[in-house]
Amino acid sequence: MSVEKGPNFLEEIIAEDIKNGKHGGRVLTRFPPEPNGYLHIGHSKSICVNFGLAQQFGGTTNLRFDDTNPEKEETEYVDSIKADIKWLGFEWAKECYASDYFPKLYDFAVRLIKMGLAYVDDSSAEEIAAMKGSPTVPGTDSPYRSRTIEENVDLFERMRKGEFKDGEKVLRAKVDMASPNMHFRDPLMYRIRHTEHHRTGNEWCIYPMYDFAHGQSDAIEEITHSICTLEFEVHRPLYEWFIEKLELFPSRQYEMARLNLNYTVMSKRKLLQLVQEKHVSGWDDPRMPTISALRRRGYTPESIRNFAEKVGVARRENIIDVGLLEFCVREDLNKRSTRVMAVLDPLKLVIENYPAGQMELLPTENNTEDPLSGTREMPFSSELFIERDDFMEVPEKKYFRLSPGKMVRLKSAYIVECTGFDKDEKGHITVVRARYIPESKSGHDQSGLQVKGVIHWVSAAHAIKAEVRLYDRLFKVEDPSSEEGDFKEYINPDSLQIIHRSHVGALLRRCKAWRFLPVHAEGILCTGYR
Ligand code: ATP
Ligand code: MG
Q: How far is it, in rounded angstroms, from Cα 464 to Cα 501?
């Protein structure tokens, strides 16, 4: 990664492990999404870190679906996750599924039972919670904790066979009910769920919990560096306990800070609500923080990877301003995107001294930042559209665009001087008139005139009508999740503006990347067009 910044703590750990010949210098990371939603920008950090570190140290990365919650998971999500990772530019070594390990995980559980390290508990979820104690108060033993090994083996087998209903029994690890680490207080390993699984169908009715599935899956795949986010730090002792007791491959867990972004929500549960309750048009609505939405909005994989690089890897939580993400896409599109002129709020401009019915093609560079991008020809004629706010009847101070008697340059075309305008009975300006200076043609300017303003335009007869969608932030506040009440109360009601009256330069169809339109503001109009 970045040389100036020096290695981050994960790079240091991996470099040290390689130096010491740990695992024969081999590096194998994994990206472990749960297929219960679409990937979002937070996941892209994890993807870039996991795949990036492996690439950097000559290793590989597995894609592992952590599919242990059948009621929330779907194949649609599996497919979208794979498409998004590929689009971001990464290739996994193996495509793995925690569900493929169900038989192995079951055997591991039986082994722990036989070692006297796991037991079947008939207590209800509420009873188990009440017996857990609190960080300062030790927990109390479940009355089922002292079941014999034989009884536990038998009951667990019958759980698997489907003899019990959901919630009737669970399998728990027998660790330490007085541990200061709450995760050690006899954590759940298996629960009963008579639900069809998107891959294993009805083969299983018991499913492993995260803590029992994750570390064991890492060990089965012989993952060398298992990178997760900081909230799992407290799970690490348990991760190591299972691996140690089962004498499995010694995968190690490392934690980094999550990516937090303002003006959005990133929990998949909340994103799903936005979709299901139709606050957005779908997972790929351009206002969503999902990778598919960013793609549709015009983000490039490079801009997202660059964003992840800029955010960096640290162990300190912070909130990244969404402006940094927007900066990254702007910087990237500026280098690679073909420009097209578009007028969103059209006002007719008639060039009185340009022959009616005549048209000339003015060559213009597709992207001045990229000499290889070539040129295109823009039709120019006597009737143009300009942006309504590029004309002012009574100009304010420092207004350098068009106003009566004033001159402005039409981008890549001619200098024009405003000669008059018409209004309708309501006082609304309907047409602006001007004369053009033939010697002022862009690139061949012999006029000697100096004008301060440059405005964009399209030729009325040659422009095509377009629906333009202007997207703004989906939320009005920086952190909708921490506000009082429901996060959806903070949705920005003006986050989507649809303009039907706009006109886009005629040669649009030839340009592939028209998402970068040199209209006002910051020069980028990210539209949801596809
Ligand atoms: P949610 O709680 O919204 O369902 P999750 O973190 O449980 O999200 P997973 O599919 O389990 O989602 O995540 C896959 C991987 O992506 C995990 O390793 C997780 O740590 C990582 N990840 C998820 N969100 C972020 C984030 N905001 N920043 C960095 N990594 C993240
Ligand atoms: Mg998760």
A: 10
Ligand 1 mutation pick, 43, 82, 262, 265, max ligand atoms within 8 A of CB: 43
State whether the beta carbon of 267 lies less than 6 angstroms from ligand 1.
yes
Q: Output the residue whose Cα is nearest ligand 1's atom 10.
A: 33
Residue in the structure block whose two tokens are 């909340």:
270
Going from the Cα of 317 to the center of ligand 1, the distance in angstroms, rounded, reads 14
Tokens of 481: 């999740």
Six token digits for residue 341: 């002129």
Atom of ligand 1 nearest to the CA of 259: 28
Tell me the average pLDDT across 321-333: 92
3-class secondary-structure state, position 151: helix
Please report, as a single letter, which amino acid is at residue 512.
K
Give residue-wise pLDDT tens across range 420-449: 999 999 999 999 999 999 999 999 999 999
Give the chain's mean pLDDT: 92
Sign of torsion over alpha carbons 313, 318, 322, 324:
negative
Task: Tell the residue number behind the tokens 């979820």, with chain if given.
Answer: 125
- CA–centroid distance, 226 to ligand 2, in Å, is 14
Q: Whose CA is nearest to atom 26 of ligand 1?
A: 42
How does pLDDT run across 375-432, given as a tens digit for each residue? 888 899 999 999 999 999 999 999 999 999 999 999 999 999 999 999 999 999 999 9
Q: Is the dihedral of CA 243, 248, 250, 254 positive or negative?
A: negative
**Is residue 46 within 6 Å of ligand 1 at its C-beta?**
yes
Q: In sequence order, what DSSP letters do the residues of 152-201 get, joined into one string?
A: HHHHHHHHHHT-S-TTS-EEEE---TT-SSGGGSS-EEEEE----BTTTB
| CB of 40 shorter than 6 A to ligand 1 | no
pLDDT 10s digits, 250-292: 999 999 999 999 999 999 999 999 999 999 999 999 999 999 9
Measure CA of the first residue to CA of the last residue in the chain; give whole Å: 34
Q: What is the rounded average pLDDT of the residues 89-101?
A: 98
Are the CB atoms for 262 and 478 separated by under 8 Å? yes
Pairing of strands 206-208, 188-192: antiparallel
Q: Is the pLDDT of residue 511 over 80?
A: no
Under DSSP, is residue 396 helix (H, G, I), strand (E, B) or coil? coil
Q: Are 61 and 51 in contact (CB under 8 A)?
A: yes
> In the chain, what are the domains?
17-256 (3.40.50.620), 341-462 (2.40.240.10)
Active site (catalytic) residues: 34, 258, 268
* Pairwise pLDDT comparison (443 vs 366), residue with the higher score: 443
Backbone φ and ψ of 292, nearest 5°? -65, -30
> Is it the case that residue 184 has pLDDT exceeding 70?
yes
Phi, psi for 97 (deg, rounded to 5): -135, 130
